[in-house]
Amino acid sequence: MAKLILSTGNIVSGGPSIIRKPGAYRSNLELTNSLRSNFLAAQQDFAAAELRSNGTATPTSNGDAGGPDLDAETGGRPSASVWTAEENGVLYVPRIDWPEEGLQEEPAQYNITVKLFFLPTAPVSKRPQYAGEALDLVLKELGAPAVDLFIVSFPGMSFEGDCEWEADKQNSAQGNDEEEIAAWSAVEELHRRGLAKKLGLAEFGSEKLGRFLQKVQVRPTVDQINLKNCCNVPPPLAKLTKEQGIELLVHSDCTDILPKGTLRDLLGPGLGGAGILADPETGRGGLHGDLSPQWVVKYTAVVRDRGVIENKGYFAGAELVEG
Amino acid sequence: MGLLALGTALDWPEAKEQAHLVRSWGIKQLLAIWSKAKGKERDAMLWGDEVEYLVVTYSKDDPKVLLSLRQADILDALENDKALCGTEKCTPVLPDGSSYQAHQAPPVFHPEFGRFMLEATPGKPWGIEFRELLEVEPNMKLRRYIAKDHMLPNEYPITLTTFPQLGSPGVFTDPFYPVSGSRLRSQFVPDEIANPHIRFPTLAANIRSRRGRKVQVNVPVFRDEKTPWPWRDPTVNYDLHQWPEDDDVRNGAAPDNFIHMDAMAFGMGSCCLQITFQAKNLTEGRQMYDQLSPLGPILLALTAATPIYKGFLADTDVRWNQISKAVDDRTPEELGEKNDRWRIPKSRYASNSTYISEDSRLRPEYLDQDLVIDEEIKQQLLDGGMDDRLATHFAHLFIRDPIVIFAEDLQELDLNKTDHFENIQSTNWQHMRFKPPPADNSIGWRVEFRPMEIQMTDFENAAFTVFIVLVTRVILSFNLNFYIPIAKVDENMETAHARDAVLTRRFHFRRNLFPATRARSSRGSNSGASTPVTSRPPTPTGPVDDEHRPMTVNEIINGTAYARSTSAAASASASATTTPGHPAERGQDHDDDGGEYFPGLIPLVESYLDAINIDVATRCRLATYLDLIRRRASGELWTAARWIRHFVATHPEYRQDSVVSERVSRDLVEAVIQVGEREAAGEGFAGMGERLALGSLLGGR
């Protein structure tokens, strides 16, 4: 069994992957596009660096994707060992040169928000571990001692339906209260250790939130919701959050942010894949086994008083069970 | 009136003698502030908006609306009303039921050039907390309410860019004054049209003196079905012999097919919407200045609101060139009519001529190749430690003479003031202004965005204000690159004047706002405290002309995908109301350029908002603002200019001859006042009548 950590790096000045496409109001395109573009950039960068040190450049190489270090086994891509890195049994895709300084100013100048997506493909029992891992990666990336807001998104929850009242009702039966409360206690622990100053939830309707609040020790200060027509907050939810002093924030993420098939495509041998996984037909070139996504974390660092996003990106954790 | 110190203003011949001294002291003051402030860091993002009003007299039974010249009395009333920030009046309950927030500082009112104008700013600058963005509109309403509250019952502050009857024969001011005074020597407006503070008449008179004749503000007349052609401005009097300048019209100042105007008031009497941003440091200020500059003409076209001059429909939709001509103090030599030290291609009021950032993305080809600068001044600035690019900028601004000089200020140079520097700086009216900190260095480097036209309602004014604020955050966060050659920005500024430019014209715009390849190891944009170090500076390659292409405003604002889906609707609506005229101008918006993708400013703003923590109510309100701008850009909604044209065209008294009669003007102002009253009361516009077509202007509000 092997563990993979995927990362996007800072996507904020990265171009097209940050732009919301019309009609794609709620999608994971930002994640998948920025992963893909980071893989490609890493393949080019590290392969080019390798090339310079080896001096094996072919004179016709023009620096485009797949120019140097062609490897027939990986479909013309530079081999994975060049641009990924394995440390302590974890494969980093791509490899990460941890920055000496994450943010340009001292951390107190920033408002750092983290949103952790628990995925339906991962075992519930490991959620405490995932929360710790994900937050560690973000803190390391940003060079910050703590985040300001840590939002948790549980699988299987949404506001669906045309009428927002209806959405709020349906929401009541979604997810799994017990599992969510169990995971929350791990998140509370991160808060107690001072790593997350405030906690938040996503997609909790009025009834679920009401039940949740009765059972937790550290209360969420934020509930992030996605509404088709954002001006119609279900009145019970508006009332409850107002009474409880919980801020209702907007988001446009989808809950199932990294389905298994999407991950396979991203890392697979096909067109647009990174060539980390073996070709299932030929069995050649890469890792074998069943890959499942475990969690995704999104982080954003905004300069206080200036409203400038300095750093934004994602990490994703996945597990490969060799078949 | 505190800003406007009194003194003995020099008439032109004496002022000219002192011009060199003022420039040289101005440069010394600039260098003093430069050395104090160049290292300023981490100033917060603070910003402010300025709204300008015309003050009109109107009553239901009066067949005339007039410009009220009681500016000084109104300002006195505002100034002397201690209760403005006292207890009772400080928290007035506004007509829409909302009350004035106690934590808000009371708004500030300022005089303007026109004696019929008023300017209002928020009492303290805004920050970038998103809830503050929502306070802009209520604050604008509050300003209007307080202004009205200090006027006579029949006086109203309205936000039209120009007064439709300004300069037409007969009575258009209250009180009435005869034309042809000694300062303006205008045959259309009295000297009393200008703010009586000595600064303003001196400004107008010295511009005229320096120029050697009156200013010539000629705007092409709109040719309607029954407009006589060629059209000769029927209001021009060729038989005046009171002033030497009365010869101007006999010497061809008023060509056929143009509405002829001859005084500064026709330009500087226009109202606009300006926004000033404080940058975190010098570098960021210079970056914002450059990046906002190519957006100027786009926002000018999008806010177009000026289709009437002197009682006639013009063939242009915006105020810009008229102001430019109204303050054009260039001598015949500088205009290139005679040989001189230099020919100056633009008026003091014009689109930007410089980029000022030391950004590695700024290619030398973008700069104005024929920029006129004062080499001696540039050398002084370089010697004082300023870098070449900024020294060039100021050496360009300082080719101008100071127009208004007070004798008292020439006694000794005070390096703890910036008055001489500001004398030149603030009479260079470009579409962006780069503002050094004041002499006490108490606030930061600032950038002013100046091209937008004022809109009829505070909702619209707030929408454009908030949009530009968000665009600056997007530029800095995503490190966007809008650079195109300055000559193309100039061209766009001209293009923005066309009738319905939003629908019918294309503007040069940069195709790719992002670096060509992703710099993987680049850490963040440049929001940090220090000047950013880009780990892999992009190497510009390829011809500059391939970097930009002509785009519609719809494409620029909404992106190519949205533009494609709406262009059919927009062109249908364009042809439905486009009056006959110049068929060549139509049909230009039909083809798209082989489907090249451009993201659009609004999708970029939405991507930014998606990444920020925003509460539901705030996001909803911001969405209504973005929606207005989206639909204005796509043509689903009309610009103010289009709405005004529609009002005139459908008025029973309009004769399809380009003449906007007193009656039509009165009814237009009445409609504007009624819309304002509805807005103030928090009521919608339903039931105001089909003919008003407010739904086409504001959407379903």
Can you give a write-up of this model?
The complex is a heterodimer of chains A (323) and B (701). Chain A has 323 residues and is α/β, with parallel strands linked by helices. Chain A is built from eight helices and ten strands. The radius of gyration of chain A is 21 Å and the shape is globular. Chain B is 35% helix and 10% strand. Chain B is built from 21 helices and 17 strands. In chain B, the strands form five sheets. In chain B, strands 1, 2, 3, 4, 5, 6, 9, 14 and 15 form a nine-stranded mixed beta sheet that branches. A two-stranded antiparallel ribbon of chain B has the order 7-8. In chain B, helix 1 packs across helix 11 (419-425) and helix 12 crosses helix 18 (616-634). Chains A and B meet through helix 1, strand 8, strand 9 and strand 10 of A and helix 12, helix 16, helix 17 and helix 18 of B. Chain A: Residues 52-80 are annotated as: Disordered. Chain A: Pathway: Sulfur metabolism; glutathione biosynthesis; glutathione from L-cysteine and L-glutamate: step 1/2.
